[in-house]
UniProtKB/TrEMBL annotation:
It catalyses: D-alanyl-D-alanine + UDP-N-acetyl-alpha-D-muramoyl-L-alanyl-gamma-D-glutamyl-meso-2,6-diaminopimelate + ATP = UDP-N-acetyl-alpha-D-muramoyl-L-alanyl-gamma-D-glutamyl-meso-2,6-diaminopimeloyl-D-alanyl-D-alanine + ADP + phosphate + H(+). Belongs to the MurCDEF family. MurF subfamily. This is UDP-N-acetylmuramoyl-tripeptide--D-alanyl-D-alanine ligase. Pfam families: Mur_ligase, Mur_ligase_C, Mur_ligase_M. It comes from Litoreibacter roseus. It comes from the Bacteria. It is found in: Cytoplasm. HAMAP family: MurF. Residues 24-93 form the Mur ligase N-terminal catalytic domain. Involved in cell wall formation. Catalyzes the final step in the synthesis of UDP-N-acetylmuramoyl-pentapeptide, the precursor of murein. Its EC number is 6.3.2.10.
Amino acid sequence: MALWTASEAAAATHGRATTDWTAEGVSIDTRTLAPGDLFVALKDVRDGHDFVAQALENGAAAALVSRVPEGVSEDAPLLIVEDVLTALEQMGRASRARTQAKVIGVTGSVGKTSTKEMLRACLQVQGKTHAAEKSYNNHWGVPLTLARMPQDSQFAVIEIGMNHPGEIAPLSQLARPDVAIITIVAPAHLEAFNSVEEIAEEKASIFAGLTPDGMAIVNGDLDLTPILTARAPGTCLTFGQSDTCDWMLLDATPGPLTTVCRARFEGQSYLFKIGAPGRHFAMNGLAALAGVAAVDGDIAQAILALGNWQPPAGRGLRCFIALDDMDDQIGIDLIDDAYNANPASIGAALDMLSVAAPSAPHGRRVAILGDMKELGPTEIELHRALARHPAMDRLDVVHCVGPLMRHLSEALPAEKRGLWAETSAELASRPTKLTHAGDVAMVKGSLSMKMAAIVDAISKLGEAVPKEDRENKMGQQ
């Protein structure tokens, strides 16, 4: 079944199709465009109209444009609209209207991508599931995700993010979730908000798009939980460790590669495993199970799926880098959490690192941290305060990247203070100074700090051992 026909797309956007065409997908990037995709000429850093000719040469079924681009013939397969972004939103709205899928929306200051990916894993074993790619959660990412949704999807998971006030409600109204999950509210994007309470109000605006019988699921452990529950228009369930939570996490025991969890809901106990170490992953898994139950999914199948789930690259993915060709037990445990950072997510990452066991008796726990961005006037103190995080007591070395993280470096005890550099490229150029055999090292920072360069540099010191092989080796010891 075609994803879009020319007539369907024209009807949705009130545009004019120059020819009859069918599209199997929707793309905004010629580098990842697949033959048969509808190319959407968005204006961002570059004007997508400049790439229409290339997209058509690469096999695009058609292009969504506001004008016929230079170098493109009048009879080329185009859908001409007044505004491309508005048209993409209209396609997203039409796609949502024509599907019978049960839709889950996910937002939060921390953990929304991991929770979204857990939900994808839990639901795709139960029916045709559509979910956002990467972190496509903004003003173009949400409509793009919806426009890509096959009509016969049974489940859909839509991640919704924000940088400024007023962004979440219209995206939720576009997605119209049957279930809306708020993972956590924490200091993030404080440049655009006056307080964490304002952030909570913005996160709670995801409920603006809930379907009439929709369900809200929120973190019940927060000081700000009352703000979230007060904004829920109908049924609202809580998850967390507090004994007042509907979905209650009884305990979470991190191991070298997994976290074993026990939870309770409506008098029923559940034992489940997350395929990654970390208490914060246990909380995300609990939210995912609550979401599965809310769309009448099978909890037993979801629990099995969570045991096989792994974080995406940059979101806490753990890999063993073998350094010795003769002995693949000699190496570095590398935790790649380099995609983004704020005080709450760095705190969770430090907690995870503090209980991680180095692979050798002499091994160290090493944190490599980059600046947290968009924190407003308190940014210096928020960076310095990380030195007082309880998990720091169990870490051996902390390397820092960026002018803001310099304040953390200076606040650390001398015995824990590692290298400091202005940029990630400087530290990436000397990976052997950062960590060595037997260590467990964690890399984290805001996306603009390009901490992935450090992950790549450490990875290239040896050969990555797949998680399954590592588990087998450890099981034989």
